[in-house]
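Q: Please design a sequence for this.
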């Protein structure tokens, strides 16, 4: 019988939360969900550490960091600029953007006009934008290449 009341309270609570969320500003709600998720993931991670399950806690801490907007990097993953030594660097290329580098980033030939630049930028951003699962670094590089070529 007590299980029935618990389920009833949870269902009523969900209905009330859905009603409140329908009337709330979606940006505030998204921020609340991100922060709440980060707190829950962090607490679950702490509980797992206390229980001696550190291997299971690490992904929860990474999820909490990601939800709060902190950069989460795994060793050996990610994109960067290749140095002459063959290793990668996550910093900007030395000397800034060049015309040849900007054309290479956008996948264009030397005689590209403004329309070609804008079209290539749009196609790449649809693939690489962070909101669509892309990389922040690559999206920034594509934007920098477009701005350099268009003189903005």
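A: Design:
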């Amino acid at each position: 019988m007590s299980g029935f009341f618990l389920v009833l309270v949870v269902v009523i609570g969900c209905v009330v939360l859905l009603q409140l969320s329908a009337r709330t500003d979606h940006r505030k709600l998204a921020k609340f969900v991100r922060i709440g998720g980060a707190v829950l993931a962090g607490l679950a991670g702490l509980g797992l550490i206390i229980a001696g399950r550190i291997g299971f806690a690490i992904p929860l801490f990474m999820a909490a960091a990601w939800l709060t907007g902190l950069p989460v990097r795994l060793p050996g993953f990610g994109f960067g600029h290749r140095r002459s030594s063959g290793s990668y660097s996550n910093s900007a290329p030395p000397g800034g953007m060049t015309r040849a580098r900007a054309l290479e980033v956008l996948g264009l030939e030397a005689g590209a006009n403004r329309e070609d630049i804008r079209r290539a930028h749009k196609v790449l951003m649809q693939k690489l934008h962070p909101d669509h699962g892309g990389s922040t670094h690559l999206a920034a590089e594509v934007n920098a290449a477009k701005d350099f070529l268009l003189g903005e």
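Q: Thanks. Anything notable?
A: The CA atoms of residues 52 and 136 lie 35 Å apart. Helices lie at 2-23, 26-50, 54-68, 99-106, 114-128, 136-150.
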